[in-house]
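Design request, tokens follow.
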């Protein structure tokens, strides 16, 4: 890199970092994906306070410890736990980990784009990557997505370097003794990436394209590439099978089986999926960016075709994985090549007459729209804040609670253990809600906590009326009752 290029890259990375500092010490009680953030943060705290075993993370719901779920490999939670152990439980550290992962993913994305798009388009792609709505919010959310982005972008970059060195077309590396080092690093990154978030596997499609592009059909006879592919896929499979065997609760496996596998070929054209995309694509990349994708794709050159392949690969992930799950943050992988496509288009515009003004205006529109979409996501759930304070005031860490909510946030945020009521998720728990409550009491539940006096699925208030008639009510804050079960 030339000195000017280094300064520009570092400046963009600094701006990306600074725009993630808002609410950096806020607990995960923002409305947007609060349950997922609270899950991640509470698992990290449980590593510190209960059992620091990365193979056996513990959740705060579905009963007392041990409470081991079948989940992805906890890279993010493990690092947060290390920082908690050293510096104490400050949410700043919990948010700093995903921010650092995102900065690294940004650098790797730039380095990869630079190989195919040139410096100027790569810089513009990096700028778009930093300001698109989904990255602006979720890159500082206490979730594993940015770790997966870093592993995906880095794995693709190092694999590309390995192919270039194998082709011996460019002298990119220092020395010639570590010819296989990029392949080893890429394998490590992508193995961890798939273990962190399985949709990372779709990056294999642009990798196949690069194999043909750089080596032609000769790559088919290269045993190292086949061994690389085998290990990169096999090791995550072994992990998921092992994690499932350790789990006390396998509901995440049920999600994969019932939502993804059963509906993967039909969900993408369902009315529910259409409604999801109409609502969430603007929150992902913005309407202006979505419109700009079309001319960006139409102007792609042969050298830039790998970005189109990457875009189509992640569009396939959207159709097969996101459509049945319908979680906004799963769109984050598709948004990565979208950012590069926008960078390509802006670079084309920049090269034209009066292009500097138009490119700058378009970039500002994308940034402004991103701010408009993201600002409401920072809104704090004041009901949950009050409910957490009530629970922490009335109960101890040893008390087991039953909460009248599908959302596990209250248990995680208040650092309590217990059960979610009236869900009907588990075959070993009575389906009848009255028997279900007695089941929890027999298991040691001491308090029942409706969320601001409401119970999930109890629209007519029958269950709350029954609990009101059977158990003493404590109400330190009006409208936030807690019931003593024993």
């Amino acid at each position: 890199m030339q000195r000017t290029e280094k300064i520009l890259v570092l400046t963009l990375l600094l701006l990306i970092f600074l725009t993630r500092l808002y609410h950096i010490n806020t607990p995960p009680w923002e409305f947007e994906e609060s349950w997922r953030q609270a899950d991640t943060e509470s698992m990290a705290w449980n590593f510190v306070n209960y059992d620091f075993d990365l193979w056996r993370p513990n959740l705060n719901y579905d009963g007392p410890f041990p409470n081991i779920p079948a989940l992805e490999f906890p890279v993010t939670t493990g690092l947060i736990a290390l920082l908690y152990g050293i510096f104490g439980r400050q949410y700043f550290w919990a948010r700093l980990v995903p921010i650092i992962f995102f900065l690294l993913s940004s650098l790797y994305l730039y380095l990869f784009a630079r190989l195919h798009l040139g410096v100027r388009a790569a810089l513009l792609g990096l700028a778009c990557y930093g300001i698109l709505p989904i990255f602006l919010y979720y890159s500082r959310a206490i979730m594993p997505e940015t770790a997966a982005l870093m592993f995906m972008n880095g794995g693709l970059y190092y694999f590309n370097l390995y192919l270039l060195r194998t082709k011996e077309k460019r002298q990119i590396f220092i020395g010639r003794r570590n010819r296989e080092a990029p392949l080893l690093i890429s394998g490590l990154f992508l193995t961890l990436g798939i273990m962190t978030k399985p949709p990372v596997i779709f990056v294999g499609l642009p990798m196949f394209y690069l194999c043909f592009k750089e080596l032609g059909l000769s790559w088919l006879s290269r045993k190292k590439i086949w061994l690389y592919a085998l290990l990169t896929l096999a090791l995550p499979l072994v992990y998921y099978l092992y994690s499932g065997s350790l789990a006390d609760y396998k509901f995440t496996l049920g999600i994969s089986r019932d939502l993804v596998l059963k509906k993967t070929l039909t969900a993408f054209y369902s009315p529910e999926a259409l409604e999801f995309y109409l609502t969430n694509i603007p929150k992902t990349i913005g309407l202006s960016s979505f419109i700009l994708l079309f001319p960006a794709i139409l102007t792609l050159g042969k050298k830039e075709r790998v970005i189109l392949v990457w875009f189509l690969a992640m569009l396939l992930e959207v159709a097969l994985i996101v459509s049945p799950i319908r979680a906004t943050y799963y769109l984050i992988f598709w948004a990565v090549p979208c950012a590069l496509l926008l960078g390509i288009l802006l670079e084309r515009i920049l090269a034209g007459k009066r292009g500097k003004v138009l490119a700058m205006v378009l970039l500002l529109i994308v940034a402004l729209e991103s701010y408009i979409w993201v600002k409401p996501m920072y809104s704090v759930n004041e009901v949950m804040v009050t409910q957490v304070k009530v629970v922490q005031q009335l109960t101890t860490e040893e008390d087991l609670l039953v909460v009248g909510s599908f959302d596990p946030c209250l248990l995680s945020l208040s650092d309590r253990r217990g059960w979610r009521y009236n869900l009907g998720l588990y075959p070993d728990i009575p389906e009848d809600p009255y028997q279900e409550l007695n089941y929890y009491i027999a298991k040691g539940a001491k308090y029942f906590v409706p969320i601001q006096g409401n119970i999930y699925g109890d629209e007519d208030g029958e269950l709350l009326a029954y609990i009101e008639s059977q158990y003493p009510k404590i109400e330190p804050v009006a409208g936030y009752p807690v019931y003593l079960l024993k």
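Comment from the thread starter after seeing the answer: thanks! The chain has 20 helices and five strands.
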